[in-house]
Amino acid sequence: MNIKNIAIVGGTHGNEYTGIYLIKRMQRTQFQAKWNGLEIALMIGNPRAYEQCSRFVDTDLNRAFKNEDLLNIELPGYEANRAKVINQAIGPKGSSRTELIIDMHTTTANMGVTIILVNDHPYNFQLAAYIKHKLPNCFIYYTSAKSYTGEADHPFLNSIAPYGFLLEVGPIANGIVRHDILEQTSMAIGAALEFVSKTNTGECPMPTNSLEVYEHVRTVAFPIDAADNINGFIHRELQDSDYQPLQKGDPIFETIEGDTICFADEGVFYPVFINEAAYYYKKIAFSLTQKRVMKIKNTL
Ligand SMILES: [Zn+2]
């Protein structure tokens, strides 16, 4: 494997400042020079939303990268157009000159450092295993197009290129920067680029032959009242319990009236994005994953 062309993106969501600040730091400190042999494009994903300190202007940019949407020139809104500009700059999706993309995000959920993979290419799992070796507390979350949307084509910016990952770090409020979160994000990127550099020069840094992966199953909606408004909140026992096992009978919500709602599905799930601020407008309370241990083959 020889990967040369990399894109690092921050601010795909305009109110997630950590990635934007890191892009600015990289631009101002000759970051590229530290990574000899790699061509690294640095980009702020949604500059107009950043100006407004909002997640997006018209629609979520990180759901705008399905092929049919990239090809549809009549699709209205700033992000539909911005996705095409990004696709032209670092893509085009399917035959992109950029081989690997790191898209930096933050979350209000207690997810620590989470590496999100959008396809099952072995290189991506090897890369994730290396980052996990360097940052032992990080989590690997796999969300295929099929599991995420039920369709074959992924809507994330990451889907432009075959390799790379979406980085989700939290908990942090939207519209602020925290030194610790910024540093964790920076360390994950450093580990990723170290892996790419090493594999490019023929070193095969495979620290493990198995990897714990949390695979996306589905989202869970908040309880809704007769007027279609959210009628409750995350139960204290679920709050901050991202990646902790959840099973039938565990409390997940308390309604406005004060009733407890418990989880009703059979089996053991691992919730993530618990109480994510960005999903309230979609009435999504959290997502469910299942844990599995993957064999990692050294194909480098
Ligand atoms: Zn985001």
TrEMBL record:
Pfam families: AstE_AspA_cat, AstE_AspA_hybrid. Zn(2+) binds at H13, E16, H105. Its cofactor is Zn(2+). InterPro entries: AspA/AstE_fam (IPR050178), Aspartoacylase (IPR016708), AstE_AspA_cat (IPR055438), Aste_AspA_hybrid_dom (IPR007036). Signal peptide: none annotated. NCBIfam families: PRK02259.1. The keyword Transferase does not apply. The active site is at E168. This is Aspartoacylase. Belongs to the AspA/AstE family. Aspartoacylase subfamily. Gene3D superfamilies: 2.20.25.160, Zn peptidases. One of its GO terms (cellular component) is cytosol. It comes from the Bacteria. Residues 3-194 form the Succinylglutamate desuccinylase/Aspartoacylase catalytic domain. Residues 210-291 form the AstE/AspA barrel-sandwich hybrid domain. Keywords: Hydrolase, Metal-binding, Zinc. Coiled coil: none annotated. GO terms for molecular function: hydrolase activity, acting on carbon-nitrogen (but not peptide) bonds, in linear amides; hydrolase activity, acting on ester bonds; metal ion binding. SUPFAM superfamilies: Zn-dependent exopeptidases. Binds 1 zinc ion per subunit.
